[in-house]
Fold this sequence. Notes:
Elements: H1 7-56, H2 66-100, H3 104-140, H4 143-180, H5 182-187, H6 189-202, E1 207-211, E2 217-220, H7 233-240, E3 245-246, H8 249-252, E4 254-260, E5 268-274, H9 277-298, H10 300-348, H11 364-406, E6 410-414, E7 420-423, H12 425-431, H13 436-439, H14 444-447, H15 452-460, E8 467-475, E9 478-490, E10 495-504, H16 506-546, H17 554-582, E11 590-593, H18 594-608, E12 612-617, E13 624-627, H19 629-653, E14 660-669, E15 672-679, H20 707-717, E16 721-726, E17 737-744, H21 753-773
Parallel strand pairs: 12-14
Antiparallel strand pairs: 1-2, 1-5, 3-4, 4-5, 6-7, 6-10, 8-9, 9-10, 11-13, 14-15, 15-17, 16-17
Helix pairs in contact: 1-2, 1-10, 2-3, 2-10, 3-10, 4-6, 4-9, 10-11, 11-21, 16-17, 18-19, 19-20
Amino acid sequence: MAAGIPTHLNAGFSRVRAVLASVANARLFGKALRFWLSLGVVIAAITSSVATFLILNGLTSIFPTNNVVLSTLGINASFVAIIIGIIGFQVVQLLKARKREAGAGLHFRIAAVFSFVALFPAVLLAVFATVSIDRTFDTFFSTRVKSIVNNTVEVAQSYLQESGQVIRSDLVDVAREVEIGAALFTENKAAFERLFSSAVSLRALPAAFIIDSRGKLLAASSTDGPRYKAPPPADIARAAEGRIVPLSWDLANGVAAIKKLNGFEDAFIYALRPVNPNVFRLLQRTQQNIIQFQQLEYSRAQYQFVFALMYVLLALTLLASAIWTGLVFANRLVMPIRKLIGAAQEVSQGNLNVQFDDGFARDDIGRLGQTFKQMTVDLKTQRDDIMSANSELDERRRFIEAVLSGVTAGVIGVDPAGCIKLINRSGLELLGLPDDDGVIGKPLVEAVPEFGEVIEKGRRQSRTKPVHGQITIVRETGERNFAVQVTREKDDQADFGVVLTFDDVTELTVAQRTSAWADVARRIAHEIKNPLTPIQLSAERIRRKYGASITHDREIFEKCTETIIRHVGDIGRMVDEFSSFARMPQAVFEEQDIREVVREAVILFQMSRSDIEYKLDMPKEKLIALCDRRLLTQAVTNLVKNASEAVDAYRASNPESGKGRVMTKLRLIDHRFDIEVVDTGVGLPKENRHRLVEPYVTTRQKGTGLGLAIVQRITEQHGGVLELADAPVTENCDHGARISMTIPVSHGAERTEKDEARTNGQAELMLADSHLQS
Ligand SMILES: Nc1ncnc2c1ncn2[C@@H]1O[C@H](COP(=O)(O)OP(=O)(O)OP(=O)(O)O)[C@@H](O)[C@H]1O
Ligand SMILES: [Mg+2]
């Protein structure tokens, strides 16, 4: 294929191909990279959503502080935004492709259906999740829960208060007793301590201390009770004002109170009763919980919003991931279909060279593609075959049209209904028909009724045997003979009508008849003339020898022998005339002034017949042509003689018609000279007009019928054409004949061009016939 392409161009082509291939590869690579990146983003988005869910629900070790919540939700939102961006990119690509690419609409619809289907679960999830959060919060913050929590605290506090009340009254009692023995404190410390211990143990207090205002321990009720821990100075200060001050329970790990001791310089009594540590812990926790609970209630809307946001983001992530998956799946599913639709569109527009990817998938669509490819290849092969057959047919048609328009024979194609479907130029000319537009589609028997019979015969004939025939067509211009051949166009199944070939054989027929007559004439002349001389001699001898001896009825004898001798002489002359026609001398061609030839013939009549007006119309300048002067003079003389006789005949039947006229015209038309004799006689007979040129065809009583036969022979010898027609109708005259001889100026003794053309035409017809049959 590249044989004719220079090497450097070839190298250029392969470089361009390589660049295109690398561009295609790069595009494929880019596509794959985009897919994997998108898939990574989708997986990361789903993972982050799940992580957010776990973190916000406290299912991980990460505590959902404000920052953590904000950042996880932020990451989620970013992922959702990226996926939406990816989807947007793909949708824009799809929308763009939808306008120009086949099947993009289908792609778009499938992707839309996927997205729609994905939308439902995502929205449902978001709605359900939000509603259930709401309900959870409602339950969590219901009044029952609140009252349970509050009651728990109240119970704990009541317990503590009661314990506090008990210890206060115990403290007052112990203080009263100690104040009574206040003097002992300075005087007898040991007695005081005993008093103090008994007062304390009497009230089953686990421990009591006497302290000063600085918290310094002055005396203790027992050594094995809880260890002393100085109360807060603020509480001591308040007790100094005279009140019984209860101590915060967590400080004392139980209930405790301080009271100023009256009667002492600076002393306070401080008693405590440890409470079950579990009660304390529970109380502590309950209080913490209450604080938390109140905080939670305070920021309930905030939590609700965060959870709703988390679920919305989760739903969005799922939705976007589903849409992306849908798009990718639609891509995978629809891409081969799109390619197929594109290919089908190309094929429908006539491009059968459409390219297919070689690797077809093994699914149904792959099989469809494979079948479509096979179908396109088959179509292409068939179309190529049809095209080549068509071009071959076209070539044949052109050839046949050229042949048909070139041949001189007429060719007519007739369909089975008998209408003309084709006619060549020669056919139109020969039949004198208008242009082919006027006859195509017309029934042949309407256009040329004379063909009817031969066509019928041809239709009945088998294909292998063409029908031959001869028909005569009579038109205003004259009568023409045609040799016709009818061939039937038929194969085993159908009938295609017939083909008619025909040629004008008028001249040929006449020539054949003339030559046949010449032959007959020669034989008859020969056969008749032979016995004539002995008959004549015998008659003369009888007259000479017995003339003198016959006395009786001698007159009759003389008359009879004379009649014999005279009639034998007449027969001899007739036979001479006969044979002179039969032995027409060969023409001797010489350059002559045709004007002289014509004048010579007409002058004889002008001089001898004054009752007829002989007119001569000739060019002024010489008209030199190759001809036999004697023969041509004889021909013109015959024509003028016939014209004169026709005028005579007319005058005989129309005595008042006046002087007749015979006009002889000589013209030079297109290298041919035309001698035309027009008279005002009876005119040519309508029937069998063409046979007038045959020997012995005459309508005159005294005529031999050889005149026109001789004129025809002479015209043929000069390569010319003899035409018999009616005289042109004028105002004064509507009768008469017009006989014309048209002869080529330089014919010489050669064949005429027309003869040659006819031979060639027949050869062409035969060639075309054989071509068709091949
Ligand atoms: N000018 C004409 N006008 C009318 N009829 C003509 C004319 N010329 C020829 N014919 C007809 O053609 C016939 C044949 O003519 P042709 O010259 O061959 O023979 P003829 O004239 O009859 O006899 P011949 O010429 O031997 O005396 C004539 O009988 C006549 O009917
Ligand atoms: Mg004549």
